[in-house]
Amino acid sequence: MKTQLKTLTPLECSQLLRCLQQPSSGDVPPRVYHRNYTMALLMLDAGLRVGELIQLRQDQLWYINGPVGSLVIEKMQAKNKSERTIPVTLRVHDAIDRMQRDWWIKRSDFATPYAFYRTSHKYPLTTRQVQRIIKAAGIESIGREIHPHILRHTFATRLMSKTSMRVVQQLLGHSNLTSTQIYTHPNNADLQEAIDQLNERS
Fold first, then answer.
1. Among this protein's residues, is 152 annotated catalytic?
2. Is residue 3 part of a domain?
3. Residue tagged active-site, from 34, 35, 49, 158
4. S-S: 151 plus which of 43, 55, 77, 176, CB 3.0-4.6 Å?
5. pLDDT digits (tens, 9 = 90+) for 169-191
6. For the domain that residue 90 is a member of, what is the CATH number?
7. Catalytic-residue membership of 2
8. Is 147 one of the annotated active-site residues of the chain?
């Protein structure tokens, strides 16, 4: 029997993002909160793998005078070495705009300006660091650990109810449709919604 995919409900997504924007404790600068929030959004609204996220450069998110309308994951960044383009949501657009103000300044050197870093734009956050950030926010916001890949699963599951499997395949960057088919299986929320509809009075 296949293990059911773990995803977040809309309420859990909101709680997680709210926590990342403004945790209840700690004295971390607000710009760090926003960096963490933006990373979560890119996994939740664009379906990025954490390995793709940490490789992002500033110029992939900001073009000349504003946030990009579509994010291009380059071949060398993608798990399957295949380039894909993902239109950005309005809240990702707004998050990128603030990243430009809070984190990204004009550089005089020629080092790769990574989008998400701790102290130097030359050295991006590691996969482990992002995992720790999301895990801690999950415990604080909804009382359980969250792995970054759950955000990607949530993105894919939400999409599957709104568009075709082929579109979902392309947005996720799957090499074959078999990998995308796992999202066609109903989850607990789907089952509950089906039963709830029986309770609705016409």
1. yes
2. no
3. 49
4. 43
5. 666 655 565 555 555 565 566 65
6. 1.10.443.10
7. no
8. no
